[in-house]
Amino acid sequence: MERPRCAYYTFVSPQKFSHIITCVLSMRIILLFAFLSLLPTRSFSQIYTQDFGGDDSPDLPIGWSKSPANASVDLSTASVSPSGGANLRANNNIGGSGAGAITFQIEGEINATGFKNIQASFEHRRTGAMPAIGMQYSINGVDWSPVPGFTTNANSTWSTINLSLPSNANNVSDLRLRWSYSAVGGGASAANYRIDNLIISGAPCAAAPSTQATNFSSSGITTDQMTINFTRGNGDRVVVLAKESAPVDSDPTDGLSYTANAQFGSGSEIGIGNFVVYDGIGNNVTVTGLAIGTTYYFAIYEYSSDCFTYKTPPLTSDATTPVQLAYFNIQSADINSISLIWKTLSEQSNQLFEIEHSVNGVEFKTFGRVNGAGNSNAERYYEYVHRAPAFGVNFYRLKQVDFNGDYSYSPIRSVRIAEPLSIRLFPSPAADRLTLQLDKPLSEDAVWAMFDQSGRLVQRGVFASHQLLPDFDLTTLSAGFYTLQVIAGRDSFVRKFQKQ
Q1: By the 8 A CB rule, do 423 and 436 touch?
Q2: Interior CA angle at 116 toward 112 and 119, to 5°?
Q3: Of 75, 188, 307, 452, whose CB neighbour count within 10 A is largest?
Q4: Cis bond before residue 68 (omega within 30° of 0)
């Protein structure tokens, strides 16, 4: 917009004076619009209004009630009201003269769903002899809290009060208000408190997210924790619910916020057994405190934190903690077979065990399967025999597979199977010297001994593990038959020979 041009004059004629006034006004209007453009805009809508009917009926409006039933709370035109008709009058007595606690309230009429920044505005007056008045609100009809800023002046003059309700009154389907006081009695001429022209208003909430979270996956599953992963939708926050052994069956309530705790069972509970394990802006949560061999069900909700409006239906899935494996061991091993044994303390959705084998501890291949018990809280024992294992080190692990395809691995176990030695003694029969021929080095240095036919030790000694042709001096031995025994760690053997 072009700035108005205002000239400056030393002598001001009436026409020029009019021009100056027009310029000044134009510039003030421009400055006013510029100021207003900087102010935040806030669009409020009326949610509920009540002017109390404009007649002298003693009946309270629909949705309004009083306690006790004979409390002197009714509609009246005895005092000029701002609406020009009837107003609600609360007298300082019960049943005309009695004393006691009195409340009057409205319920079932204020639907603040979809609104935030709830405001309550009304006119009221209190005579000097009337007891102090309290005003409270409730979002569930059970828990009541004081309305901040509510006061009454005992001057018998109508005044307007504007109140802002706390944020937990946002987006509530049955917002309730009540007024209370302690009547001290005083007969028909008792003092009173009056209200008129009640208006409840609020600003529209942001819409619920239009896109739900997707791509559920689980990772890092152990016997007591797992990580839940997902792709975010278009809410500004997301909340995750978890339930043990059954699908989540209660949704978050619009307008309510919840306390999240990744320790299962420690966050807010919605319905029965549905616990809030995450509330935030991320795309994963590690849930802890889980039971072994148990299936957990999850429901993920995108939501708008403006008024806590939740996108439904949620993204749902489940994951199972592993079978409780007591042990997995190698029971026996030789060149012909290796016996594997394991025990479970409990099983949940356990379809089978795959037995995997490796010769290098890195690359495993499945060579056997054993069916699981499905669901069991009893101890279970399993065994599998690997026939004709490889020479050298054999590595084994169990892959426990659930019916839904989830799986987990056991610790790795290993055992070494030594390749048989090829042994030859020569010459036979021997004269002064005997030679032992080996086809490969021994696992350790060898201790050897010779025995005669009666079992008496006649010679003994050692030779290094790398010697493939150790020889023995027989010159001190008499002619006859002898036994050579060699022990070298895992390698040991006995051979007979003849001395000439």
Answers
A1: yes
A2: 80
A3: 307
A4: yes
Per the listing, tokens 């949610």 go with 47
For the question of whether the overall pTM of this predicted structure is more than 0.85, the answer is no
Cα 358 to Cα 40, 327, 364, 398, 413: the distances in Å are 69, 20, 5, 12, 10
Q: What is the DSSP letter of 19?
A: H
Cα distance between residue 193 and residue 130, in whole Å: 7
Residue 464: count other Cβ atoms within 10 Å of its Cβ: 12
* Residue-wise pLDDT tens digits, 44-63: 899 999 988 755 456 789 99
Q: Model confidence over 204-224: pLDDT tens digits?
A: 998 889 999 999 999 888 878
Phi and psi, residue 151, nearest 5°: -145, 160
DSSP string, 163-224: EE--GGGTT-SSEEEEEEEEE---GGG--EEEEEEEEEEEEEPPPPPSS--EEEEEES--SS
The residue assigned the tokens 């069916």 is: 371
Tokens at 446, concatenated: 């060898």
